[in-house]
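Box 3.1. Reading complex inputs
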Amino acid sequence: MQNQTLFPLYNKDKPAGDPLQASQAEASSHTRRVYIETYGCQMNVSDSELMAGILTQNGHQTVPHLDDADVVLVNTCAIRENAETKVINRLVQLNHRKRRQPDLIIGVCGCMAQHLRDKLLDAAPYVDLVMGPDAYRNLPMALDSLARGVESHVSMTDRDPFVGLRLDKSEDYADIAPIRKEGIRAWLTIQRGCDKMCTFCIVPFVRGRERSLPLKLLVEDVEKLVDQGFKEVVLLGQTVNSYRDNGADFGDLLYAVGDVNGLERVRFTSPHPADATDSMIDAMASSASVCKHLHLPLQSGSTQVLERMRRTYTAEEYRNLVSKLRERIPDIAITTDIIVGFCGETDDEFMETYQMMADICYDSAFMFKYSEREGTLAHKAFLDDVPETVKSERLKQIIELQENISAAINRDTVGDTVTVLIEGESRRNADKYHGKTDGFKTAVFPKVPDTKIGDMVNVRVDTTTAHTLIGLTV
Ligand code: 5AD
């Protein structure tokens, strides 16, 4: 089930849409109406909420429709080539719009802005603003100067773009209040950047070094989110479980957030296996509101490939970790990320991944073909030498395997009663609700009187597919 929405963190292939409602800035002559379009991971959705907060604090408005905007900011992803291709195609469309609406300001923000820099401006010279993830405080200044067509400290004429690409280890946006879409689930960034340096990965180069937000502030944020009506909080970080604040670690944070009154569920994504400490496992095992679901990216089942990827664990260590997790938390749901066709991956090495997936039986998996990223360590040190056809064939094999495993795991739940947090009306049938189980499985069931979105209900599972549990409330 490649690219299915688990956490949208890995739903790279479609824009997450405008996550933001219209913000309520006091309109003045310098007020810009900004439409933010988000691609890529959940961290980007969270960053778009942050951008909306910064813009609103500075007298601008966010609008829910492009037609109402005089600025469009495309928040982009650089993780694989197809994510960047998608954005380039979108920019071409936006340029058509700009021909009809010459004052339209087009901005490219986020990871791809940071990754491509000058190349982006060569490919899309009509872009007015290029801004990386650590520079969003400059957005209001950039919009003002673009609107005036004058900028004093960056040499530009009214046709020059505004470029803000400095990575800043001290930038954590701790003082900014994001503007979130109302709903059941809120995303809370607890850490920015990444220090891991996996050889395939562009993230450290586009998001900079790792930094954590203060624990006390995060707990206050969660209390505010509960007051605003959110039932579930998802803690976000590139390697979320390497969180540190003075002496506190990720387990301490989980306990502290889990204790917030009125919060039904806490989730987090994505942890790194090397940082899966006992402290984290204890908190998952014993804090009632921390969901028993772990997204634990494996990437490859071959120790040799893991070494080339610089994942800092062996296949055996990963297997031992999974055994320990299942011992401590017997009903835990485990999901993963897999890359096939990494540099030099042999048939045997691929089969080790296949076998590992067959042995571990993940609840679900995001599976990708290796996509070489300029600037990464792998790009410098290794050849991207697995032919595209071989990558595709390997991907097909593991998708088929995982579909069967997911279907079998779900089939096993028939007759069980699961607790579901209602998230909304089923898209296919307005008489039904959909929601998630603790293990992040989607459940669909007929509405019953006296239940509403945000309620926790018990559902008895009657039938299943590889992706959904279908049943009745009991
Ligand atoms: N090619 C393919 N997949 C990648 N990922 C990260 N970088 C690459 C790349 N260069 C995948 C990993 C990671 C997920 C977010 O995206 O599986 O866990």
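In summary: The mean pLDDT is 92.
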